[in-house]
Amino acid sequence: MLWVDTVETNFERLRRYAAFACGCPRVGDNVVEEALEDPLKTRSSANPSDLPVLFQHLDQAIRRQPFVHAETFSHLGRWRFLQPMERRVMLLTELEQFSCGSIADITGLSVAEVRGLLGRARMKYADRFPARMAVYGGGAKARWAAAAALHACGHHLIWESSGTVPPAEQPSRMPSAILLICDEDTHPEGWAAALHDLVPGGAADRSGSTGTFDGPVIVANDVTRIERLDERAWAMPRAKLQDSDYVREALVRALLFSS
What we know:
Radius of gyration: 20 Å
Strand content: 5-15%
Number of strands: 6
Strand order of the largest sheet: 2-1-3-4-6-5
Oligomer: single chain
């Protein structure tokens, strides 16, 4: 495999990491361009194990950036409370799925330092990773596909329901996040009403739950990509429910960047 092929295959992952690490997509793109200049000039071939090397070049370029974009995180929930290095370790672990050993190689830290940073960062997300999920709406086939994808991602499905309230037999188990599946004939105002039923004070409270749900909601509908709807609500393509990698990315974004 040519080195340029490895870059092209993983280009969006590199852009995503740089954008979130730098706090600004524009700055992130500039950093990616700077970081890839040397590898593309000096290497003629690559293999899949070289991917951490790409991220290592990128992380070195990120380290040279002054951290002046913190305001970008002001609306990203708990993410804004993480230190820059904690953010990078969380991104590499949860979003990019690298091991602690690979992260140590990428960041130049020791494995012990990576684990320490990851532990401190995860304390701020203790109720979200791994996620306890509730799946609402859609048909049985769609809910089954979502459950299989969540299981493949390492998250736990604690209940599912064809309606928009928790099942009566599990009234006290509060999820970390909710996946709301909209049928093809559900209009935007329909899923908006369903979202309203799931926030504190809505139908979910009246079902007998011992607490109020205040975590992120992911709406699976007719969008074509992952989109942020507001501080707690996200959208993803319903057609991607069988793609565990796509579901994981949507869920990780919602868990990391929601209030």
